[in-house]
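Morning. Coffee machine broken again, so started the prediction first thing and wrote up yesterday's gels while waiting. Chain of 353 residues, entered below exactly as on the submission form.
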Amino acid sequence: MFRLAPLFPLVLSLVVGSKVCPHHCLCYDSDIVDCQARGLTHIPYGIPRGTWLLDLSGNELSELRSNAFTGIWVLRIVLLQNSSIQMLQPQALSSLSFLEKLDLGHNELRSLAQDFSHGLTSLKDLRLDHNFLERLESHSLGQLESLERLDLSHNRLQVIHSTVFRSLTRLKQLNLAWNQLHQLPAGLLTMQDSLGVLLLGHNNISSIESEAFTPLHSIGVLGLEANQLGSLKFKTFLNLQTPSIHLHLSENPWVCDCELHRVFRKILRVRRLHIDDYYNITCHSPPLLAGASLALMDSQLCMAEMATVLVITATVMVTVVAAIAMAEHNRRKRKMNLGTCGSVTKIQATQKQ
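Came back before lunch.
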């Protein structure tokens, strides 16, 4: 009996734990509640108040109801990915003032409620990837002042309001890849001087304003691959403040000419940035250069252009010389004709006398 006594508190703990743990979920001593892939259609009742990690991924929640997390205010991590969530009702997340990570990836969200960010003042990591978002309004992320990582990749974003990131002054990583963006609105990143990683690959961006990246004083990785860029302005990268930046620029429909060669040469040699996929950058036009590697033929572009200029110049010069010669020939011919006419006139005058 004496030997069994030390085991009694452990047995009691397990019994008590089993009573407070939600049905079908697993609860651990470290205040972790695992409700992953349990076929749940709503957030279960009876989640221990001291829970700091709640895994609800892989369920069939459909929506998050208002005040769904009331009473479990110490939550630090909530995982809701792949849970068929289509809508968040008003104030669904407002009680999570200590939450640091929220994963809503791989769901069916088409928009963010006006009060989506209300109460999430401690959130550092937000995943909204693989949803159906088409727009980000100015109010969408307004109170996420502590946010450091934001993943919006694999959505359908076409419109981003110019002030949507205004309060995200601590943002370090922003992933907007695999969307349908045509441009970056002016002033979109004016407050992101701490941003180190900006991923914009696999969009429809066809041009970039010269000042678009100027506020990014800490940028280290800039992904622009697989867009609709045919040309670049060197000033766009000259304004970047970080000494060494890694760029991704392949899979764009580059128009290979001497000007593009000069821009890339300045980026590499003058600005000394790293184009990680430089040898994968290929020409889209002109047709004769389609599929050719820019890195392997960039010096030939200016040579070809110079040869073309020389041919044009020579043609123009020959044309001008020929025109001058023809004019001189016509002038002499007219002069000779005038001289002949004068001689005939004199002869006729002499005969009359």
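The chain has a mean pLDDT of 85. Going to sketch it on the whiteboard this afternoon.
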